[in-house]
């Protein structure tokens, strides 16, 4: 794995040296996000771009620039001050758009198709992001963060898991009919998993491989490999193997907040299932959602620093999202997605009293250490939810 990581890192370094060979460069990229910003009486556009080599970077543009989100562009960049670490993690560059390609990428065109089914702009942008991973407008992203439901819109293992169950169920009935007549010797689980995995891989490539989707897809493959061989499925080893493998192949993931949040969420799910094994289905379903919310809260506060009176309701919204997601997918598939506008507008219109919760990086670091110690230490494992509850009470006290 170390050799793979070094080879991948070497490839990234060669791409970095090509980009910074001269003080400036002209490269092809895709505009992933574009929004207006105002500072010191000056209004301008901020562009988030992704180069063909996979580097993410920001640049500013004149306020009059038309909407280029989803378009391929050729840009001129100043690269004389760019170091390798910022090249991997994302950087800001002085530059200008030199040319624009004639058509938007398929992902953004599909997002337009979903959004066109809605009369309400925020609802359309929300469902476009939910199904095609197109960026949300900054104001809507802020509202969702205050409600504590940003994770429901960022396509991750949660969504991939729901899709895999849906696909497996839909494919099972025609497969069984064909199997009983033409190939009864075949292993149904292996065949259905292979077809499901191929479809989900195509979907992940269509989404341009977001870090959380990469982690989830790798976990799914490793999980089925263990299951097919009668090995333990819900193991921390499988999570570690998936995370290390992905970082070895894509070193940029070391700097991806979304990737590490996704890994942390799965870690806490496994920790819950190992702590409260053999409990009833209702306790497991409700308890796991409450547990993950409390465990992720210190991390979310340390990184994003926002808490509101409605934030705890994200536990309820997450549970309701499980039946809502396939229903929304079905309605959009038949062109009737607009019927969901009313509940979405109602949720977005809820009065939110949000405050900035200052925690400092000490909370993130100490919570990470305690979370890792919870695996070998039963005492720390049982202490963890009480500490998380204390953080929750402190956040509620600040917003009350």
Write the layout of secondary structure elements.
Elements: H1 2-19, E1 24-39, E2 42-51, E3 56-62, E4 71-78, H2 84-89, E5 91-92, E6 95-104, H3 106-115, H4 121-132, H5 138-147, H6 150-153, H7 157-182, H8 188-206, H9 211-228, H10 236-249, H11 257-275, H12 281-303, E7 306-308, H13 314-333, H14 341-348, E8 354-356, H15 361-373, H16 378-399
Parallel strand pairs: 3-5
Antiparallel strand pairs: 1-2, 1-4, 2-3, 4-6, 7-8
Protein name: ComEC/Rec2 family competence protein
Keywords: Cell membrane, Membrane, Transmembrane, Transmembrane helix
Domain ComEC/Rec2-related protein: 136-394
Summarize the structure in words.
The protein is of the alpha+beta class. The chain folds into two domains: 2-104, Beta Barrel (OB fold (Dihydrolipoamide Acetyltransferase, E2P)); 146-399, no CATH class. Helices cover 60% and strands 15% of the residues. It is built from 16 helices and eight strands. The protein has helices at residues 2-19, 84-89, 106-115, 121-132, 138-147, 150-153, 157-182, 188-206, 211-228, 236-249, 257-275, 281-303, 314-333, 341-348, 361-373, 378-399; strands at residues 24-39, 42-51, 56-62, 71-78, 91-92, 95-104, 306-308, 354-356. The strands form two sheets. It has a six-stranded mixed β-sheet with strand order 5-3-2-1-4-6. Strands 7-8 form a two-stranded antiparallel ribbon. A hairpin with a 4-residue loop joins strand 2 and strand 3 (56-62). Helix 3 (106-115) packs across helix 4 (121-132) and helix 9 packs parallel to helix 11 (257-275). The longest helix has 26 residues, at 157-182. The chain is globular, with a radius of gyration of 23 Å. The mean pLDDT is 86. This is ComEC/Rec2 family competence protein. Keywords: Cell membrane, Membrane, Transmembrane, Transmembrane helix. InterPro entries: ComEC_N, Competence_DNA_uptake. It is found in: Cell membrane. Its main location: membrane.
């Amino acid at each position: 794995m170390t050799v793979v990581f070094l080879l991948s890192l070497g490839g990234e370094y060669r791409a970095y040296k090509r980009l910074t060979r001269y003080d400036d460069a002209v490269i092809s990229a895709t505009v992933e996000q574009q929004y207006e910003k105002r500072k010191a009486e000056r209004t301008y556009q901020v562009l988030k771009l992704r180069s063909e080599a996979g580097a993410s970077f920001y640049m500013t543009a004149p306020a009059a620039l038309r909407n280029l989100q989803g378009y391929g562009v050729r840009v001129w960049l100043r690269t004389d001050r760019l170091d390798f670490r910022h090249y991997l993690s994302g950087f800001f560059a002085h530059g200008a758009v030199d040319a624009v390609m004639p058509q938007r990428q398929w992902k953004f065109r599909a997002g337009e198709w979903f959004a066109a089914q809605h009369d309400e702009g925020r609802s359309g942008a929300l469902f476009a992001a939910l199904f095609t991973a197109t960026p949300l407008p900054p104001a809507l992203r802020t509202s969702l963060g205050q409600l504590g439901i940003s994770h429901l819109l960022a396509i991750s293992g949660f969504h991939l898991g729901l899709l895999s169950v849906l696909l497996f169920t839909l494919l099972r009935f025609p497969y069984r009919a064909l199997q009983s007549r033409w190939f009864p010797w075949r292993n149904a689980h292996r065949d259905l998993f292979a077809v499901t995995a191929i479809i989900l891989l195509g979907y992940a490539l269509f989404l341009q491989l977001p870090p959380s989707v990469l982690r989830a897809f790798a976990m799914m493959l490793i999980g089925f490999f263990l299951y097919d061989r009668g090995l333990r499925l819900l193991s921390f080893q499988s999570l570690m193997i998936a995370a290390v493998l992905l970082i070895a192949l894509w070193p940029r993931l070391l700097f991806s907040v979304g990737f590490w949040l996704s890994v942390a969420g799965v870690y806490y799910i496994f920790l819950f299932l190992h702590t409260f094994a053999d409990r009833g289905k209702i306790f497991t379903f409700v308890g796991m959602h409450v547990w993950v919310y409390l465990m992720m809260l210190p991390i979310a506060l340390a990184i994003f620093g926002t808490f509101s009176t409605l934030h705890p309701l994200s536990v309820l919204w997450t549970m309701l999202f499980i039946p809502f997601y396939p229903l929304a997918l079905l309605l959009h598939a038949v062109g009737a997605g607009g019927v969901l506008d009313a509940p979405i507008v109602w949720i977005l219109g809820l009065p939110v009293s949000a405050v900035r919760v200052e925690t400092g990086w000490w909370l993130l670091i100490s919570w990470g250490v305690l979370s890792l110690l919870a695996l070998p230490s039963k005492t720390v494992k049982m202490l963890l939810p009480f500490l998380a509850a204390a953080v929750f009470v402190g956040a509620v006290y600040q917003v009350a």
